Amino acid sequence: MLGQDRENARSEADRPGKSGREHDGPVERGRNETAEERADRRWTELIQEIRVAQTGVQILFGFLLTVVFTPSFGDLSDIDRNVYIATVALGATATGALIGPVSFHRIVSGRRIKPQAVVWASRLMFTGLVLLLATMVSALFLVLRVATHDHFVPWLVGGVLAWYLICWFLLPMWARHRHTTQD
């Protein structure tokens, strides 16, 4: 029954005049939306994605800020302190980039430039994801280095980095290429 409803919805949407457009050739794929509707939809989707990333980076950054106040921080080697400082700086920049779209939207709200705001917010989010990736890898490196002092830590962190790259970038890029090329 559900499949039949979907088929009926498809055939109704494909009829001339139903969407306000006459189809002379093949049926258009995609949405029938104005530029403003597209910007609204893309903004909503972007904000949902940002919420997930912001939560993760804020928890990680908050944890990193507390480490310096622990008694064992004084026992860190110079290398580990430098890794810690780099990790905190990366966490701060990732937080800034992932919160940036919210500030950007608030400042330009009502100026009728939502399509441009979506583009800039998307760029900030992508930058934030790259910085979050660097923060997570750096934090993992620091924690495993302090916890184990073993020489396998860089290899383990390299494996985790490869996994992140596959999940966050390679798989989506592969799917984008595979499913958006011409049939």
List descriptors.
membrane; 5 helices; mainly alpha; transmembrane; 77% helix; single chain; 183 residues; disordered N terminus
Descriptive account of the structure:
The chain is an all-alpha fold. The chain has a domain at 34-148. Helices cover 77% and strands 0% of the residues. It has five helices and no strands. It has helices at 2-14, 35-67, 78-108, 114-148, 153-180. The chain is flat. The two termini are 30 Å apart.
Characterize this entry briefly.
With 183 residues, the chain is mainly alpha-helical.
SSE arrangement:
Layout: H1 2-14, H2 35-67, H3 78-108, H4 114-148, H5 153-180
Helix pairs in contact: 2-3, 2-4, 3-4, 4-5
* Mean pLDDT level: 85
What is the CA–CA distance across the termini?
30 Å
Number of helices: 5
Helical content stands at: over 70%
